[in-house]
Write a structure and sequence with these properties.
The structure is a homodimer.
Chain A (H helix, E strand, L loop, with lengths): L5 E7 L1 H4 L8 H12 L4 E7 L5 H12 L8 E7 L2 H4 L1 E2 L2 E2 L3 H15 L4 E5 L7 H20 L4 E2 L2 H4 L3 H9 L7 H13 L9
Parallel strand pairs in A: 1-2, 1-3, 3-6, 6-7
Antiparallel strand pairs in A: 4-5
Helix pairs in contact in A: 2-9, 3-5, 5-6, 8-9
């Protein structure tokens, strides 16, 4: 019997892209490589883009899905963002909380009609104030996802005191880890129960 | 001194995507991981899409570059396609040779005005007839690229008798190798002299 032909698109920001990882996998690539080794026939599309907010992702995600997720394949989408929405440019938050949540709602309304969908919450940086604001945003995002019946993996609580994550983030650029940090993040998602492709 | 902030987009088909590779890197990911390990500050965007022809790529490439390649970053684009153009659907070749070459010309005219650009020729499958047609197309593609001053890396001559490549392709699906085959292909591109990020 042929295995299902699984296609998965990851949309998000630099954390999805894997910025800082010399192995060029990030957490998304590590999850898909593990799934392939476990026997799933997965095609991995990483569509994380550095600096993007939820507004940027909302603008492009569907156009980028269309050539990649075909009527005849088994299609999955993962969204992960939040940190750039909160960041300040000239003292102004790039995207307000209500806009972030409205973007998430719109994304999920549209995505869940087409694809199996998962949301992965934003991971912490090496900045307590940012992390406190991000924790609050992540909780609100979870509420939106859960209300729409979409699983949500909070990553901040698991990583905010994680030595490996924090040491790499601090040693790198204050925001992004290196290979070992991304491996930790992949583990958090894999262990959540919400990731579809665990050991078979 | 800060290192240049290098962003690179790879556009192409399943070979660019890395179909069949359990490590989820393909040749493009291996090249970028090597470059990062050599000290280049590279952000790697893999925009290969399975089944796509040059016509499909021409349609989407610029829209997908725009959020990823920013005015303030040092930007590179790699194109690699050809095998799907040649494939037959209901006895009809999907894209004629003259269309493939016109697509390549249009892509390069537009890309070279904006980004440092490279073309990587299509690699062989486990099918002598297909390979003979592909070798001819690859030579014509090289002529187009060279005439426009864009470096072209032919991969078919280097791989058509390569044991590792052919054994994996045959053992897999007749078209795509696995991890070791993609590592061979990455080596061919790295050794060509046209790849920008060798050992520093």
């Amino acid at each position: 019997m042929n295995k299902p032909d699984i296609r998965i698109c990851f949309f998000g920001d630099s954390y999805v892209q894997g910025t800082g990882d010399d192995e060029c996998l990030g957490w998304a690539g590590r999850l898909c490589a593990s799934a392939r080794r476990a026997g799933y026939n997965i095609t991995y599309y990483n569509l994380g883009v550095r600096r993007e907010t939820s507004t940027d992702i909302a603008r492009r995600w569907l156009a980028e899905c269309e050539p990649r997720l075909l009527p005849a394949t088994e299609n999955y989408v993962v969204f992960s963002f939040g940190a750039n929405d909160l960041s300040l440019v000239d003292g102004q938050q790039r995207v307000s909380e209500s806009e972030t949540l409205a973007n998430l709602r719109a994304l999920l309304d549209s995505a869940t009609n087409r694809y199996r969908t998962l949301v992965v919450g934003p991971p912490p940086a090496a900045d307590d104030d940012h992390n406190a604001r991000l924790a609050r945003l992540s909780e609100r995002m979870r509420d939106v996802a859960i209300r729409l019946g979409v699983p949500y993996v909070a990553t901040l609580p698991a990583l905010v005191d994680d030595r490996i994550w924090l040491d790499e983030v601090r040693d790198n650029d204050g925001a992004h880890p290196r290979a070992a940090g991304y491996a930790r993040l992949a583990k958090v998602v894999a262990a959540s129960g919400a990731w579809w492709f665990g050991k078979q």
